[in-house]
Amino acid sequence: MCCYLRMHQVLAGVMIPKGEIDWDHVFSKWQTATTVADRDELLSTMELVPIDVYDLGKVDLSQFCGLIVSDRVDQDFLYQERDSIRKFLDAGKVVAFSGGLFREWLPGAQPFVSCEDGAITERALIVAQHPIFEGIKPEDMGNNFAYGYHPAPEGVEVLISHADGGAVVYVDRVSTGGVILVHTGHSLLGYGASEGPGRWIVPQLLSWFWKEAQQ
Predict the structure, then answer these.
(1) Is 90 exceeded by the pLDDT of residue 195?
(2) Per the structure, how many domains does the chain have?
(3) Quick one: how many helices (H) and strands (E) in the chain?
(4) What is the CATH number of the domain that holds 172?
(5) Which of 1-15, 19-33, 86-100, 197-211 has the lowest mean pLDDT?
């Protein structure tokens, strides 16, 4: 679904919602979205603003409490804009990245390590208690959730790990003045297209963003 919507071509700027979001309506939109125009409308229903990746250095990021970066994004370009990302984080903002990091654009994060057996199965995931994954079981995440791990910097909070200890999802509050969430799989926003419990990762992720912005 995300490949059709070209989620990797935009960063999702997270806004504080003005009212309650109708998640049943959002999930319905996910099921019918097939074009870039549908993508932008879908993001707006979640109080997210699509930012063309290549406009990153031209956009006033101060209006956003966070950014969501999808897998397959142009990391070479983000490396060129790494100072903008660092400045955003040091202003106390939040950045969530899904994918395999191979360029040093995200402070503190180390390069992605692929699993020899490909995608990690749900039986290999150890999930800590955290609001983003409340009520979500490993089997709800599926094999696309993780293809390996990122070595976790010292002092970070590991939310989900491989059985051998490799960090699949972690939260870093030590590398910058803000908060970084790193996830090794496909876009967390893409779980909105799921028909199972995994779709609740999306509202719970955004709720976490909003709470972080108020701290």
Answers:
(1) no
(2) 1
(3) 7, 10
(4) 3.40.50
(5) 1-15
